[in-house]
Design brief:
mainly beta, seven-stranded mixed beta sheet, four-stranded antiparallel beta sheet, 11 strands, about 0% helix, about 50% strand
């Protein structure tokens, strides 16, 4: 099956920026829509952003609109999440996920998941 590996997490102060990357292998990357989710301790995994296989259809959670930007480079089999103006409430483990044919915003609609990368935002 497809393998997804996230990177780019770390510790930043509120107002700072991070860029997450997700490298895919094992399946044709361009056939999949890609998404980013996050999960804080004691909370459900929540949708952050998603992008279609062509990059022409993008969706964001209301909590990150205007601050985060998702993009993909099919030639590099990689999806990115640029995170600006970070807030302490953005602290979570961030996961990337893959889905065939169409973008979605629910955990159950995605077929493959990475292991996550920790993002911590200090106040």
């Amino acid at each position: 099956q497809m393998q997804l590996v996230e990177s780019g997490g770390g510790l930043v102060q509120a107002g700072g920026s991070l860029r997450l990357s997700c490298a895919a292998s094992g399946r044709p990357f361009s056939s999949y829509a890609m998404g980013w989710f996050r999960q804080a301790p004691g909370k459900e995994r929540e949708f952050v952003a998603a992008i279609s296989w062509s990059g022409g259809n993008i969706d964001y959670a209301d909590s990150v609109k205007g601050r985060f930007a998702i993009s993909r480079d099919n030639a590099k089999n990689t999806v990115y999440l640029q995170m600006n103006s970070l807030k302490p409430e953005d602290t979570a483990v961030y996961y990337c996920a893959a889905r065939i044919r169409a973008i979605a915003t629910m955990n159950s609609q995605f077929d493959y998941w990475g292991q996550g990368t920790q993002v911590t935002v200090s106040s």
